[in-house]
Amino acid sequence: MRMHRGLSMLHALALGGMVIQFACGGAGSAGSGTAAPTTPTAPVSVSLANVPSSLTVGAQVTLTAQVQGASSPAVTWTVDDVVNGNATLGTFTGSGNTATYTAPSAAGTHVLAAVSVADPTKKATAAVAVVAKPVDPPTAPSITTQPKSTAVTEGASATFSVSATGAAPLTYQWSLGGTPIAGATAPSYTTPSATTGMSGNSYTVAVGNAAGSVISAAAVLTVNAGAPATYPGFGYQTAGGLGKTTVHVTNLNDSGTGSFRAALGSNRTIVFDVGGTISLTSANIASPSTGRAPPEPASPSASAACGSAIPPTSSSRTSATAEATTPARRPGRTSRSSPTAPTSW
Fold first, then answer.
1. What residues pair up with 100 in beta bridges, in sequence order?
2. How far apart are CA 85 and CA 114, in angstroms?
3. What pLDDT is recorded for position 304?
4. What does the pLDDT look like over 22-47, one tens digit per residue?
5. Do 285 and 311 contact (CB within 8 A), yes or no?
6. pLDDT digits over 229-262, tens only?
7. In degrees rounded to 5, what are phi and psi of residue 99?
8. Which of 15, 20, 211, 289 could form a disulfide with 140 if both were Cys (CB 3.0 to 4.6 A apart)?
9. Cβ atoms within 10 A of the Cβ of 80, count?
């Protein structure tokens, strides 16, 4: 009896253990209770490539973004948290993970960012300094066309000119013989009315700017003497014959038509169409009252050159011993007097 009861308890325990075992095993296989552990995923990260530390205003740079740990690699580009930026901040153009940033026209520092589309809390940023373009040093002046020597006639003015290149503004200073000319500060210089004493003057010009200066080659002025002044002849201002009658002497007779004596009178111009010596029969060529000479025994002579002209007055006289001579001229040429004619007639 006792043995039978012991076996029964063992059998019961055995059966209970099996039940417990099956219960534990069943729990594990049925999936009830704690879930099976899974492999953890990597965190999302964003990185940027090709980001410069600085750009000059208006310059461009192409950037590339890489996204790790996200189902989508797409990014959104921002400048100072403004999507795609703007004219003041600079702008992004392009699509996908590659975009081109164009710096604004004003200097400043801006933050460029690539933001993960899958996880907007994840982004990569980079600060870029936008700087002004460096200023090129000014170009020193260079003369492209030198002033040229020139010749003028006495009384005229001469103008000298120069052409030059270089950073503006350019300045000019003309000099005479190395001495600056007051007020001569333009690309060209005009002299006063030239005299023969100015012939041989040497003119130069200094062209300058902030980078330096250069002096031109010398230009020399030559002044040629002007033509001598011309005058109508001795006695040309005598008013008696100007614009009045012209009388021609056509022969060398003492008197009569065409003679010098017959041509005498007031308010007229006498033109000699012949040349030679006139033998006079009177010491008085003309009478103040009549304009004609009275006959006298004396035999003076007067010489006249062909083509000369004499403007007489009613009181003109000459002595019997004097000769009235004028320069030889071609027949028919008119002149009012000559330097060798007597001062009064």
1. 62, 93
2. 12
3. 52
4. 334 444 444 444 555 555 567 889 99
5. no
6. 666 666 656 665 566 788 889 999 988 898 888 8
7. -145, 155
8. 211
9. 15
Task: Give the CA dihedral 330, 333, 334, 340, nearest 10 degrees.
Answer: -10
Choose between 309 and 277: higher pLDDT.
277
Enter the tokens of residue 92: 């992004």
- Tell me the two tokens of residue 195: 């005299």
DSSP notation for 132-181: PPPPPPPPPPEEEE----EEEETT---EEE-EEESSSPPEEEEEETTEEP
Tokens of 277: 């010596």
The pair of structure tokens assigned to 16 is 């209970």
Strand order in the sheet with 245-249: 245-249, 268-272, 309-310
CA distance 254 to 97: 128
pTM score above 0.90: no
Per-residue model confidence (pLDDT) at position 242: 62
